[in-house]
Write a structure and sequence with these properties.
Keywords: Hydrolase. This protein is an alpha+beta fold. The protein contains 3 helices and 6 strands; from the N terminus they run ααββαββββ.
């Protein structure tokens, strides 16, 4: 899929990524990139980027990247496990995430997501997500 097609697909209905201002910015064979604003939507009470918002960015990027690796008419990718190490606080601007594959298998995928501050390049969060690849109901049914 092209970047424009991915953006249209991910914005086709209201979702958490849309509410947080997450944008997909690059699609390539070996990675997927996106960014998210650091503002009132993504702050925790002390005015810093909320760790949960970083995890939402990581899961969004990992999920979209994983879905691009399967035939979406027959399979879906769903989050199985995610972890995140929050390295540095951010108060404003944008953070940028880059999802790269660690393992692409038949039934699971593992993606690493590095989130950096867009202006300084400082590492903000390092996350890893494991995606389960599941068959869609009826997708593999034999026709008579």
């Amino acid at each position: 899929m092209t970047l424009e097609e991915v953006q249209q697909w991910t914005n086709s209905r209201p979702n958490l990524a849309h509410a947080l201002g997450i944008e997909i910015t690059a699609v390539a064979d070996d990675h997927l990139e996106g960014r998210m604003p650091v503002d009132g939507r993504t702050h925790q009470p002390m005015g810093l980027l909320h760790g949960g918002a970083s995890v939402a960015l990581a899961e969004t990027l990992g999920s979209v990247a994983a879905a691009l690796r399967v035939d979406r008419s027959k399979q879906a990718c769903v989050g199985l496990e995610i972890n995140a190490n929050h390295i540095k606080g951010v108060r404003e601007g944008w953070v940028r995430g880059r999802a790269t594959p660690v393992h692409i298998g038949r039934s699971t995928q593992v993606w690493e997501i590095r989130i950096t501050h867009e202006e300084t390049g400082a590492l903000v969060c390092l996350s890893r997500i494991t995606m389960a690849v599941i068959d869609l109901p009826g997708a593999n049914a034999k026709t008579a």
